[in-house]
Amino acid sequence: IHKEQKNAIQLAPYKEDTMKKAQIIIDKYFLTGKVDKRIFGSFIEQLGRAVYEGIYQEGSPLSDEQGFRKDTLELVRELQVPIVRYPGGNFVSGFKWEDSVGPKELRPARPELAWGVIENNHFGLDEFVDWAKKADTDIMMAVNLGTRGPEEARNLLEYCNFKGGTYYSDMRKANGHAEPHNIKTWCLGNEMDGPWQMGHKTAYEYGRTAAETSRIMKMLDPEIETVACGSSNLMMPTFGDWEYTVLDECYDLVDYMSLHQYYGNAADDTPDFLANSKGMDDFISGVVSICDAVRAKKHGKKRINLSFDEWNVWYHSNAADEKLKKWGQAPHQLEDIYNFEDALLVGSMLITLLRHADRVKMACLAQLVNVIAPIMTSDTGAWRQTIFYPYMYTSIFGRGTVLNTQVLAPVYDSRNYCDVSYLDSVCVWNEEKDTLTIFAVNKSLEEDLEVSCDLRQFEGYQVKEHIVLTNDDMKAVNTETDPEKVVPVKSAASRIDGGKLSTVLGKHSWNMIRLAK
After folding, report:
1. By the 8 A CB rule, do 34 and 357 touch?
2. Which residues are identified as catalytic?
3. Whether 79 contacts 395, CB under 8 Å
4. In whole angstroms, what is the distance from residue 73 CA to residue 71 CA?
5. Which of 129, 322, 329, 424 has the fewest Cβ atoms within 10 angstroms?
6. Rounded CA gap, 421 and 458, in Å?
7. What's the rounded Cα separation, in Å, for the pair 466 and 476?
8. Are 340 and 486 in contact (CB under 8 A)?
9. 73-94 per-position pLDDT tens digit
10. Rounded distance between C-alpha atoms, residue 83 and residue 287, angstroms
């Protein structure tokens, strides 16, 4: 998984009395919550080259008999992505799902208003279902509540999940899928608070539509779960009022509230950029509070959990996208080339999601291939971007139960945040496998961090592996010609003595420390 290097990380000489120190405090009986594997989900939208040339490329020597890119599938399986949201995103608010099924030669090409392109519908719903099976992932399907409504959502659910003997289920069978797709997670539209959205609604309008859509869909399939749209980002002027009003209308009929947030570093202020994980933490806590306030008002018996179904770094491609001409097909849109500091923030955001595992049950890194993605492709191959690595390791080893992880560490003030901890960390205990995994990011750009953790409750545990992602160049990137510029390496910096862990986290580094008996 990681590159072996002769010049493995050399820890800088230090003096015990001058090095910054931090402490991670855990107790095996103080638990935050069990990790729902869907927290490591991702997202594919009919946007740019996410689908065409990303996961699907007919006629390519790199594709299989169905046109699916084999190299992309291999990397997706390497990430162990448990669920993928589809088909949008802004795209879904104009999506006529019927256009995307049936014989390809009969599918209509249409102007796609969200991203200003022509969608030929050569890749559609059934193709995505087939791809998801090959990628070993489940599907989070979104319905169009922008230009369409409850009736079309019900019909789509019938097509996907009804066994047979009805108009739409028999249509699926005629299209070559005898068995139901059995999709159990459904997004009720996308970013309906945003004025950029086709069919943009007020909170009350959307809340009523979401309530009726979810009610009708659950009449057809009571086993599905539905996700109501929250705010498109924390800075929306309607944030807070939107969540409360929407849930006031649909609380008893939906299961999750969504959150979306992207971060950028256009100001080239790395300390402030890395501090954004604190903003993400505040966003989650705020939405949890609103959900619980509505529950209290309604004397609710169930709890609304969160689906953070769009999150990532996104800003590198903005200037290039402004120059794109409209009405092309699968242009190079939103193709951020991620650098090393982006990987640090992605690692911190994954830690933040895990620290809220009691309420964040689903999350989607947006997106998966080419479009603001950990995987990039060309006509000659696919490669891992810098953000691939923290995502992969956390997805694989971050499953289990999150311990209530307290961090005592030095703090700093950035341009937009106060009292930002230099250390982001979370501990995940997999009792079944008898392992404990510590994820940690040292945000300091100048100094290593000496960290200790009392593990005497985990008797017999020893350090099995310490993986580090770091680089001297914060702007270093991976490319097709140089795909291993930023890669993880092994470290020997962690040890256990008398049941107490001690380690040194190098300056500006992402770390994973795995312990087991």
Report:
1. yes
2. 191, 310
3. yes
4. 5
5. 322
6. 26
7. 22
8. yes
9. 999 999 999 999 999 999 999 9
10. 23
